[in-house]
Write a structure and sequence with these properties.
single chain; alpha+beta; about 25% strand
């Protein structure tokens, strides 16, 4: 009888405890990130990018609403239209870090991808590249070469990828070779 009473007490405690837990508000996606954390990272990324621009005395740039910065190096012919979503874009690029300690470190370059042209092609808007590339190239045309400074939330976010740590804004020296 004592064992039965103990068993019933444990069962009751388990039922009450599970109903209390079930009543707690859980996020729909357990991998969601707190919006306050996202906003704090956006500010930190923008500060990092602004510090880079200041450190290099770069004053000619355009900041997109998304937080991407475009620094013109060479303008393609004005007769060339801006790139549109869905077009195939072929680029030469060099990817570097922005923070002072690692800013000379190249983490990726089209010249190392083993293609005949030493270039890289992607279809804009197809999800084959980071969101920052899709957005930045919509502001470019064939023949343009720009420094593209991309906040981490439009690159590899909080997770990172390969040699790129999470929460890392990136710089790409990007030249548009062709658009189809």
């Amino acid at each position: 009888m004592k064992n039965l009473t103990l068993l019933l007490s444990l069962l009751l405690a388990l039922l009450v405890g599970s109903s209390l837990i079930a009543g707690c508000k859980q996020p729909a996606n357990p991998y969601e990130i707190d919006p306050k954390l996202i906003e704090a990272q956006k500010k930190a990324d923008d500060d990092t990018i602004q510090t880079y621009l200041t450190r290099h005395a770069i004053t000619t740039y355009r900041r997109l609403d998304s937080g991407i910065y475009l620094v013109p190096l060479t303008d393609g012919p004005a007769a060339n239209p801006l790139i549109k979503a869905g077009q195939k874009v072929t680029v030469n690029y060099v990817g570097k870090f922005i923070n002072k300690r690692k800013e000379t470190q190249v983490f990726d370059a089209s010249s190392t991808n083993r293609t005949d042209c030493g270039c890289f092609s992607f279809r804009n808007g197809s999800g084959g590249v980071i969101a920052g590339w899709d957005q930045a190239t919509l502001q470019m045309r064939q023949g343009d070469r720009k420094l593209v400074l991309i906040p981490s939330y439009l690159a590899y976010s909080f997770k990172g990828s390969g040699p790129i740590p999470g929460s890392t804004p990136l710089l790409f020296d990007m030249e548009i070779l062709s658009v189809e």
